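Illustration: Class I SAM-dependent methyltransferase.
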Amino acid sequence: MIIILKGLEEINHIKGNNFGWLFGGKHYDFFATILGFGDAYYHQVAEILPLEKGMSVLDLGCGTESVGIAISRHFGRDVEIHGVDLSDNQLGYAAIKGLRLDTSLNLYKGSMDLLPFSNGSFDLVVTSVAFCETTSDVRRGAIKEVSRVLKNKGFFAIVDCAKPILGLDTVMMLPFFMFKETAESWNNHYPDICRENNLILEKEVYIKSYVKCQLFRKAD
Ligand SMILES: C[S@@+](CC[C@H](N)C(=O)[O-])C[C@H]1O[C@@H](n2cnc3c(N)ncnc32)[C@H](O)[C@@H]1O
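Result:
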């Protein structure tokens, strides 16, 4: 197993909500499961992604890398997983989970709007409930970076807070999302921003009553 924990010198905390000791690492997984983001959710995300053997996948705001681990359950080492996050606690626990489950994860400390990868490095970029933890500027910067690091015809999946449709879980989760920065925090604005960056919406599907997956494809 290869685990690379690359540290950037300084991470500006204005870049997003950094999940520190109280809400990071194993505490994050505990709270996430209670709030409905357990194995079943990550399995659902992995199932939606247009994955194939041999792909190189980047997870933005990877947290404890539950998305990458769910992908590995389907494909083992046939898919290469890379994750970027701001938080030492999240990355540290992701590394522990990777070792425990014998899953190869490449983890980087950094902000999703400043990616340390060369152009055209990935077949698929995914982000799960992490855009909603950043500012509007960071989200726009991240989309620009995604377009740069994706191969032509590569996929980009934004799984993020969406305008709620009726459901019991909406009522439970609404207090967490109702104070987010702007209306742009709901993912109904991303198709326009993505289109400006050569990423075209292919499909969208609600995973929960307030979480939607939008799948984009990079045009030639
Ligand atoms: C709600 S958690 C989601 C974690 C994981 N994607 C999941 O689905 O379980 C949001 C994550 O985004 C990270 N984050 C926030 N702003 C970020 C940024 N600008 N760049 C990279 N990661 C960021 C946080 O540290 C946190 O781990």
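Reading the tokens back as a structure: The CA atoms of residues 3 and 16 lie 24 Å apart.
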